[in-house]
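Run: sequence + adenosine-5'-diphosphate -> complex structure.
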Amino acid sequence: MARLVMKFGGTSVANIERIQNVARHVKREVDAGHEVAVVVSAMAGKTNELVAWCTEASPMHDAREYDAVVASGEQVTSGLLAIALQALGIQARSWQGWQLPIRTSDAHASARIVDIDGGEIIKRFEDRKEVAVIAGFQGINPETGRITTLGRGGSDTSAVAIAAALKADRCDIYTDVDGVYTTDPRVVPKARRLDKVAFEEMLELASQGAKVLQVRSVELGMVYNVPIFVRSSFDKPEDIDPHGTPPGTLICSEEKIMENHVVTGIAFSKDEAQISVRRIEDKPGVAASIFGPLADANINVDMIVQNVSEDGKTTDLTFTVPAADFARAKQTITSAQDKIGYARFDSETDVAKVSVIGSGMRSHAGVAAQAFAALAARNINIRAITTSEIKFSVLIDAAYTELAVRTLHTLYGLDQV
Ligand code: ADP
Ligand code: ASP
Ligand code: MG
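>> structure
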C-alpha cells in the first residue's frame, strides 16, 4: 500500500465526462489499496474567464477580492469530483483550502504556502478509507482570514505541498501530455519524452517557460524530496496495468539519473519585455539607481546588458522584465528620470527568450557558442544573452521563436529519430 497525491489539471477536468474519467483513475488507485488525496484545477479556461471578469469590473482591482473570485473555479471541480467518486461507490469528500487549512502568506494572487495541516485527512484515510478531494491553487492567510491564490498554474504547487505534508510516497501530476518533453511538444512535433529529469533541470525548464509544472512545485519537490511523476490523464483508466510502469516522466534527484546529456531541454517564453535606458552618465551607483526602485516595486529584472552609448561617453543599460510588469517598470523608470539622469527610454515588447538547459553544461565548454553560430546561420539576431551553470538564454524577436527553438532542438541532437 502506498500513499498517493494525484493532481489533475484544467483540461483533465474540463467537463463532466472528463471528471468521471478522473474518478475512474482515482478508483483504480483506491482499488489497488492505496490511500489517495486528489488535487484539482478549475475547468480549462475557467480561471482565464474569472480573471477577465475582475479586470472588466475594474482594471485596478483589490487583489483580495480577485482571489475570492478566481479561487471559485477549483471549488466547483473539487465538489464535482467528490460527487463523481461517490457515484462509483467510493467514500470521498471535498476540501477547500481554508478548510484544511492550507496556510499561506498574504501576497494575494501569488501567495506562498507556509504550512498545511494534513492531520484530518490522514485520520480519515485510517478510519474510513476516505478519499480527500482538495481544491488546488488556493489557501488562506491566517492573520487576515482571507482566501489567497498561489499564482497561475498553482495547483501543481498545492499538490506537491500536500504530498510533502501527508508524507506521500509520490505526487502524480496528470495532464494533457504524457510527460515532460525536450521542449513543448505542441510547438516541436519532434520533441522527445524524457524518462527522468533532475529537479535542478526541471526548475530551470519551468522558470524559463515550460509551463508543464509551476516553478514553485519543483522547488518544493526538491526541498522535501517528493518524487513527482508527470503523466497523461487521457489514458483510459481500464487500460492501465496496475503492476506496470505507465509512460511518464519522473522528476527526481540527479543521482538517480544514469545517462547524462549535455543538453536536456529547451524552454521559451514570449512573456518578456525589453527596456533600454540610454545615455546614462557612466559613474558608480547608476545601476543601483535603476534596479533599486524596480526591486522595491517587486519587478523581477532578468537579462542585463550594459554597453557604451553611441556618443562614446555615456552608457546604455538594456534589460528584460516580465511583460505583465512592463507598464509598471516603465512608470517606475520614467518617473525617476531626473534622479537617474538618462536621455532616452526605449522598449520592445515583441521579444522572446529561448533557453537551453542541461546539467552537462557544467563540464562541457562551448555549448552556447554552437547555438550562436546556428542562430546566425538562420539570420536570427540576438538582442541579449545570459548564462548560468546549467543554462543559457538568448533574447530574440518573438517572430523567430519557433524557428530558433527548432534549430537548437536539432543542433543539440534532441529530435526524435
Ligand atoms: P494542466 O492544465 O494540466 O496544468 P498545463 O497547460 O499547465 O496543464 O501544462 C501542460 C502543457 O505544458 C502541455 O500541454 C504543453 O503544451 C506545455 N509544455 C510546455 N513545455 C513542455 C515540455 N517541455 N514538456 C511537456 N509539456 C510542455
Ligand atoms: N486554475 C489555476 C490556473 O489556471 C491553477 C492551475 O490550473 O494550476 O492558473
Ligand atoms: Mg498547469
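>> summary
The mean pLDDT is 95. The two ends are 39 Å apart (CA to CA).
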